Amino acid sequence: MAAEHDSSPLPDAPVGISIGQPAPDFTLRDVHGTPLTLSALRGQRVLLVFFPFAFSGICRGELRELQDNAPLFSDALVRVIAVSCDSLFALKAWAEQERYTFDVLSDFWPHGQVARSYGVFDEAAGIAVRGSFLLDEQGVVQWAVVNGRGQARDLSDYEQALVAHAEQGEGS
Fold first, then answer.
1. Would residue 28 count as lying in a domain?
2. 21 Cβ contact partners less than 8 Å away, ≥ 6 residues apart
3. What is the pLDDT of residues 17-60, one digit of tens each?
4. DSSP code of residue 161
5. Whether residue 85 lies in the annotated active site
6. 107-155 residue pLDDT tens
7. Within a domain: residue 158?
């Protein structure tokens, strides 16, 4: 079941992916310039977290909360990957300043292509909105939440999703 919190639909945004669908594959660079391909992570559960801006208050708060609660995800055998349309250089400076231990990827060019494929790209603003997608070991979307630009995601939503889909990670 997807949690729906989007109070402001995106104009001209493509329909997002649905629960039970394979997640769109992509290759993006992390803050060190190393390419990361989603399909290469098959066999692992993944939480994709799209966010609008590095160095902004709500984004910093959301990602800091993920960092501070890293055991919640590692204990559930979930790899956290944060994605923004910011440049690689801005994301590197921010990730180093914040000391994030999870992957932070740049969807800068082609600008927002991956966010667009997940239905979370705001064309008018040129940014990703706050979309999160929990993928199983086969890369199938198990849970999703999309919030408007100014609405932070709640850690309890992640906790509930991990509990609801805990059986996905057992026996791995």
1. no
2. 140, 141
3. 899 999 999 999 999 999 999 999 999 999 999 999 998 888 99
4. H
5. no
6. 999 999 999 999 999 999 999 999 999 999 999 999 999 998 889 999 9
7. yes
Note the pLDDT tens digit of each residue in 73-118.
Answer: 999 999 999 999 999 999 999 999 999 999 999 999 999 999 999 9
Query: 10 Å Cβ neighbour count for 136?
Result: 18
**Domain count within the chain:** 1
Residue 105 structural domain: 3-9+43-167
User: pTM (2 decimals)?
Assistant: 0.87
Extract long-range pairs of 72-75: CB within 8 Å, 24+ residues apart: 72/158, 72/159, 72/162, 73/47, 73/158, 73/162
- What Å distances lie between residue 102 and 77, 98, 140, 168, CA to CA? 13, 11, 21, 21
Give me the catalytic one of 13, 28, 59, 76: 59
- Cα distances (Å, whole numbers) of residue 124 to 9, 12, 63, 112, 137: 12, 9, 24, 12, 34
